[in-house]
């Protein structure tokens, strides 16, 4: 039988060569099946259709012109390693788990003659049920988004592993794939697919040849034969196996030096004996491709930056190197080694719960992978970190569920959180890096300051905000405090939608004119932050858009005088804005703006109103929302502004007519917009502005635009009927098609 010879030679080399590792080859390495076996498979195989999403994915993969198709190997090696991790974990509590195939390894064999690449592992294998679930459906959520992004060419095939569909990348290079698998709980099965809509599963007529594990045979496409070349394969495996904790063996031809037989003829001179040259011959055999010494167990002094980066990119399945990391050994109460990484980019959907487990922390115990299924190992706000923890003293016989509650793990958790915050604090020393970090994870830190009472102080020290002093760059609160003016006892801030918006806010101008610095809180979360963190470093925050705000340099007598001077105007304005405005005050804080709308102490600022309108709040308590929305506001007028002086004159001269009232309304509404609020009556505002425009242009207030429009024609009833009949025919035709052509999708599927 074809290939049988090769199988023999495989074994021989391993047994005979002194150099050969002690290795039991998992599974059979024959090519194909005997005719009898093939017939048996044909007769017993069951056909299944791929889930729609799998077919969609497959279509994308098959038609992909993706250049780096090599990633299929990364995915297969990673799956093999996961499968071995699983059986090794089981063996901790079940001594018989490994007996069917005690040696844990991954083997890769390129068969040039038959154009087949085989990857085998002695991992956990799959039962028939798991085969169907794992290689026929897509379990993980988020895949749909990946598919849409791929279809719109917005995503990269490289990301495939992050979406739990890495296996299907085999179809980048193969047009037929056969998976043979044996799990301890079931028989050996064969899964086969030619990347169309269906796949088959059959019991293996050869029985259990694997012992335990999975063998994947890729029948390579003609344009993918390079992956059988020794050089190509070798460099790829080296690239992807560096951080795999199990031996990966590649079937290669090794060069061996053969010493010439020296026949000791006594009368020949020594030189002649030496002339006989040594020969080199090529011997096929298994070659170990990785060293499997986990990077975290090495001395940090001997690990290069590049190694740390590559390790991160490999285990986190991230294309970008991390922005920072810390590698440490904890001693004392609890002993463990860990590497904590901060990615350079926030993962997709950081604040949404896409999966049950974040899978961002991998726990090993004495180098044995235990789990990455933790429910919030670190608090959610630190959910972006990636960590590897290898503990020495954790009980291995507890279930994964109770493990998380274990005291030792709780201690580890505390240490990891502390280390994370130290790592971030360390980042602050490098301005450029820290700004980059904040643009990705600044919101996370603020959530931390809100939620993590214990660490709030620490987090507050590393928060940064743009300010009137720093412009769009940002300042820490401590730096802000160091620049506070004499007698200033509060940290001034304003909230809003963007730096540009708040920079021009009427509330900021008076402060900036006096030389005070104002913090710009332009993220929606900031409103919540100041509620939970009322101050820092002994200084309270002060919202400059709130009604009670005072500079401290106000002249009470002067302001009383102004109030009496403007009383008539205030009365007129108050009467005009009776429904919207609680009171009107003569402002001391305005310099360049005519007026400003401020929130009462308990009312919402414009920014808060917008946030609440956009959030789930509307479902929670509509009554409360209405209450806040109806809160009347305070209108401050600038006594020095020409517009206000103009209105003042109208009031004093008893000329506060309907037209003036209309202008007051428009002025108020424009001020609402400038102060960050949204209008309740957009149409009313628009028509008031139009009226002012008309008046200024001297156009008749009631003149209408003249346009000629042709009314649409009435539909012809008879024609319509005919059209419908035609459409029905079309459906009938399709029905007919379906019944004759089984490859076409049914209407339901469509
Ligand atoms: N060599 C294997 N041995 C045992 N099970 C496997 C093997 N390869 C794949 N599987 C099973 O098939 C499932 C799907 O594999 P796939 O690579 O598509 O996604 P994944 O490995 O779950 O996701 P990710 O790539 O994010 O780890 C795996 O979760 C695993 O249960």
From TrEMBL:
Family: Belongs to the heat shock protein 90 family.
Keyword Iron belongs to the record: no
Start and end residues of each Histidine kinase/HSP90-like ATPase domain: 68-224
Swiss-Prot/TrEMBL keywords: ATP-binding, Chaperone, Nucleotide-binding, Signal
GO MF entries: ATP binding; ATP hydrolysis activity; ATP-dependent protein folding chaperone; unfolded protein binding
Lineage: Eukaryota, Fungi, Fungi incertae sedis, Mucoromycota, Glomeromycotina
UniProt cross-references to InterPro entries, sorted A to Z: HATPase_C_sf, HATPase_dom, HSP90_C, Hsp90_fam, Hsp90_N, Ribosomal_Su5_D2-typ_SF
Bias kind Basic and acidic residues: ranges: 737-750
Highest taxon listed in the record's lineage: Eukaryota
Protein name as annotated: 9595_t:CDS:1
Compositionally biased region (Acidic residues): 726-736
Region spans: Disordered: 707-750
A UniProt-annotated Pfam family: HSP90
Residues annotated for ATP binding in this entry: 75, 79, 121, 126, 134, 140-142, 162-167, 214, 400
NCBIfam families in the record: PRK05218.1
């Amino acid at each position: 039988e074809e290939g049988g010879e090769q199988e023999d030679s495989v074994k021989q080399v391993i047994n005979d060569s002194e150099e050969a590792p002690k290795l039991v080859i998992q599974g059979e390495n024959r090519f194909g099946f005997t005719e009898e076996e093939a017939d048996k498979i044909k007769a017993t195989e069951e056909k299944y259709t791929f889930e729609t999403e799998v077919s969609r994915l497959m279509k994308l993969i098959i038609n992909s012109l993706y250049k780096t198709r090599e990633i299929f190997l990364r995915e297969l090696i990673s799956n093999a390693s996961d499968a071995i991790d699983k059986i090794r974990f089981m063996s901790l509590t079940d001594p018989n788990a490994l007996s069917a195939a005690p040696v844990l390894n991954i083997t890769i064999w390129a068969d040039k003659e038959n154009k087949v690449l085989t990857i085998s592992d002695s991992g956990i294998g799959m039962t028939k049920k798991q085969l169907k679930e794992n290689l026929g459906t897509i379990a993980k959520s988020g895949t749909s988004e990946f598919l849409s992004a791929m279809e719109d060419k917005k995503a990269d095939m490289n990301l495939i592993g992050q979406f739990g569909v890495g296996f299907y990348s085999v179809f980048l290079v193969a047009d037929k794939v056969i998976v043979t698998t044996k799990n301890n709980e079931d028989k050996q099965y064969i899964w086969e697919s030619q990347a169309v809509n269906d796949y088959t599963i059959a019991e293996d007529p050869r029985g259990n040849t694997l012992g335990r594990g999975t063998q994947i045979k890729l029948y390579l496409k003609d344009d993918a034969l390079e992956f059988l070349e020794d050089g190509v394969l070798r460099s790829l495996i080296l690239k992807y196996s560096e951080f795999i904790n199990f031996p990966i063996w590649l079937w290669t031809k090794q060069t061996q030096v053969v010493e010439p037989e020296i026949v000791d003829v006594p009368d020949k001179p020594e030189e002649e004996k030496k002339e006989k040259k040594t020969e080199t011959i090529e011997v096929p055999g298994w070659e170990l491709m990785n060293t499997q010494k986990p990077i975290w167990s090495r001395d940090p002094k001997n690990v290069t930056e590049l190694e740390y980066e590559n390790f991160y990119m490999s285990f986190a399945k991230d294309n970008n190197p991390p922005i920072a990391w810390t590698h440490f050994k904890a001693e004392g109460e609890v002993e463990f080694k860990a590497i904590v990484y901060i990615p350079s980019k926030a993962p997709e959907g950081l604040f949404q719960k896409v999966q049950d487990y974040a899978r961002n922390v991998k726990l090993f115990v004495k180098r044995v992978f235990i789990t990455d299924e933790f429910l919030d190992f670190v608090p959610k706000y630190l959910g972006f970190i990636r960590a590897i923890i290898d503990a020495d003293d954790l009980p291995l016989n507890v279930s994964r569920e109770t493990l998380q509650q274990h005291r030792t793990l709780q201690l580890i958790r505390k240490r990891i959180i502390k280390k994370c915050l130290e790592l971030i604090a360390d980042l602050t020393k490098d301005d450029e890096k820290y700004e980059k970090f904040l643009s990705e994870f600044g919101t996370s830190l603020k959530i931390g300051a809100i939620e993590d009472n214990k660490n709030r102080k620490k987090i507050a020290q590393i928060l940064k905000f743009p300010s009137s002093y720093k412009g769009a760059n940002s300042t820490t609160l401590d730096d802000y405090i160091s620049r506070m003016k004499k007698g200033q006892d509060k940290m001034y801030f304003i909230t809003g939608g963007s730096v540009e918006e708040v920079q021009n806010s009427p509330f900021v101008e008076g402060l900036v004119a006096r030389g005070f610095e104002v913090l710009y809180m332009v993220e929606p979360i900031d409103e919540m932050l100041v509620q939970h963190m009322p101050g820092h470093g002994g200084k309270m925050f002060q919202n400059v858009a709130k009604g009670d705000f005072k500079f401290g340099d106000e002249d009470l007598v002067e302001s009383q005088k102004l109030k009496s001077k403007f009383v008539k105007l205030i009365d007129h304005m108050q009467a005009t804005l009776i429904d919207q405005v609680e009171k009107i005050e003569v402002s001391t804080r305005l310099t360049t703006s005519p007026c400003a709308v401020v929130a009462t102490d308990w009312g919402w600022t414009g920014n808060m109103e917008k946030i609440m309108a956009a959030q789930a709040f509307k479902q929670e308590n509509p009554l409360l929302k209405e209450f806040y929305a109806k809160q009347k506001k305070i209108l401050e007028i600038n006594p020095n502004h020409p517009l206000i002086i103009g209105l003042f004159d109208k009031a004093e001269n008893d000329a506060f007519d309907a037209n003036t009232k209309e202008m007051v309304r428009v002025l108020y509404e424009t001020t609402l917009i400038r102060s960050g609020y949204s209008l309740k009556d957009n149409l009313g505002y628009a028509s008031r502005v139009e009226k002012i425009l008309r008046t200024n242009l001297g156009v008749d207030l009631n003149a209408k635009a003249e346009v000629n429009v042709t009314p649409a024609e009435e539909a012809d009833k008879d024609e319509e009927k005919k059209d419908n009949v035609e459409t029905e025919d079309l459906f009938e035709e399709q029905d007919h098609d379906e019944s004759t052509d089984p490859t076409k999708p049914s209407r339901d599927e469509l």
